[in-house]
Amino acid sequence: MLNEKRKNNFDIAIIGGGPAGSSAAIHLSQSGMNVCLFEKKVFPREVLCGEFLSPEVFEELVKLGIDKEFLALHPNKINSFRFINDDAAELPVKFPFNAFSMKRSVFDNFLLSEAARRGASIYQPSEVKGITRRGNSFKLKFINAGSTEEISADFLIAAYGKQNILDKALGRNFVNARSRLNGVKFHINKKCLSSFDDDEIRIYAADEIYCGVNAVSDNDVTICFLEDRAEYTSSYRQHLAELMRRNKKFADLFNKEFFSMLNDLPVYGTGNIFFGKRELFKNGIFFVGDAAGVIAPLAGDGIGMALQAARLLTKILIHGIQNKTDRHELEGQYQSAWDKQFKKRLFSAGMVQKIILRNNLRRTGVALLRLFPWLLSEIVQRTRS
Ligand SMILES: Cc1cc2nc3c(=O)[nH]c(=O)nc-3n(C[C@H](O)[C@H](O)[C@H](O)COP(=O)(O)OP(=O)(O)OC[C@H]3O[C@@H](n4cnc5c(N)ncnc54)[C@H](O)[C@@H]3O)c2cc1C
């Protein structure tokens, strides 16, 4: 997809057409900015994600003015959560809000199409290969139909996700950090499951692994796990089988048909996910979404955070450009708005993730929550505000 009217100089360039980049492009285009966005993949495409859309996502879609278009895609509705431990203990809770789920191929394609519809120039498939700063503007080198081209922009937003080769070139603080955390997603046809409630999201846990399960369409369920492993010697499919051995109720979810299909299922996964602190800006570039900070997946709030952060940042930039505010001041404003909105949430979700991945801590936690079930709603709330 490439808009007919192409220019080479933009007010703002965005790298990445995931939720953060596309929603930033919508906000900026709506305010009259001349925006371009680069996305290296052809859409629709799948990405690693549990595909749970938290209530914050819908609130942001309302603010973007595209909630009705989203509902027209018939997202799956989710109104309850169930934690299922390897000792068979279950913790169910009704959500105090409505949430949704949808395949990322559908959701991300929807957002990017809306950005194009609002007038953003979309370069796709186009990978940004290099960034140079000249005074107060940026030059981006990108690949388009096999040849290298260049554009310039006064501001640059990096919305290219949690792991990127450009981070190394920019010398970001975490590029040499190694984590033992690994994420994996499968889509499974419902006919491979013994039974499943579409309006419930479940987390199955065992030592060093937790796995989210939720319906994402009339036919499919997403199975997405995060694991803590020192060594990655066996395949992701074997890790799923291992969770079945360790958590009997997880194994009960599947029927015989599943095992005959397992080897042919496409897998979306990545290792070495870094959840620590990242810079929000560097060399004049503003980072947003996962590029700015990754929340523990159990919160199911990464997409919500990406949309919220894109709104915060674009509001600051639009106001700053109109008022010719100094760039350092804009960076300070973004840092304080981001910390206020996300710092506590990242900490709480990180703590809960650590507890779930450790056998003794998780079992003690589950026993406690069975005694005080109201605490579970409190935890759900704290991982999202
Ligand atoms: C295991 C796991 C489960 C998760 N489950 C959930 C969940 O259920 N619900 C939830 O809300 N969140 C979940 N998340 C988090 C969520 O996936 C992310 O927070 C979200 O995708 C962040 O959006 P983003 O736009 O910042 O980045 P991304 O979605 O990663 O998008 C980045 C885009 O940039 C493009 N790109 C990268 N480099 C370049 C380049 N050089 N040039 C051009 N384009 C480029 C990529 O192709 C990609 O499309 C999960 C995360 C993990 C790890």
Give a structural overview.
- This protein is α/β, with parallel strands linked by helices and 385 residues long.
- The protein has a domain at 9-49 and 104-175 and 275-355: FAD/NAD(P)-binding domain, CATH 3.50.50.
- Helices cover 37% and strands 28% of the residues.
- It contains 12 helices and 16 strands.
- The protein has helices spanning 19-30, 55-64, 67-71, 104-117, 165-169, 236-246, 248-252, 256-261, 302-322, 327-357, 359-371, 374-382; strands spanning 9-15, 35-38, 52-53, 76-84, 90-101, 121-123, 126-134, 137-144, 147-158, 181-189, 200-206, 209-215, 220-228, 268-270, 281-282, 285-287.
- Strands 1, 2, 6, 7, 8, 9, 15 and 16 form an 8-stranded mixed sheet that branches. It has an 8-stranded mixed sheet with strand order 3-5-4-11-12-13-10-14.
- It is globular and about 60 Å long.
- It starts with 8 loop residues before the first strand and ends with a helix.
- Residues 1-6 have low confidence and may be disordered.
- The structure holds flavin-adenine dinucleotide.
- The site of flavin-adenine dinucleotide has 39 residues, from helix 1, strand 7, strand 13 and helix 9.
Short description:
This protein has 12 helices and 16 strands. With 385 residues, the chain is an alpha/beta fold.
